[in-house]
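Slide 14.
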Amino acid sequence: MAAFMVNGQRQEVAVDGNTPLLWVLREHLKMTGTKFGCGIGACGACTIHIDGKAVRSCAMPVSLVEGKSVITIEGLSADGSHPLQKAWIAEQVPQCGYCQSGQIMQAAELLAANKNPTHEDIVAHMDGNICRCGTYLKIISAIQRAAREG
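Slide 15: predicted structure.
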């Protein structure tokens, strides 16, 4: 049994402690906004926050989140009003959209720590979150917009 907070709600799941958090979120808790990409923590599609830090949930055993606070894309904003979500729409970032929840969660960590990141700060922080459609310039623009308007 693993017990932790997800998007402000206490959750208890009866799973093997080695089960990746990604599968607990998607299969047991039905929070499908977090995506499976590579399964080895290399692409960023599964990025969520644990105690405010961006983490790859596909490589995180659920046993390591016991007693911690997890925020998924569903918990970033109940109504899509987070500055990053609004900026993503305004900048028309998504093409296929598959990586977007991970991109937004990675960017949210940056903006929580740095309200006015430079272009270089953004590029460095987002390194490792892969967008197969290549919308990197739009992602950077959206983060800059969220920083300005947030």
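Speaker note: The longest strand covers residues 2-6.
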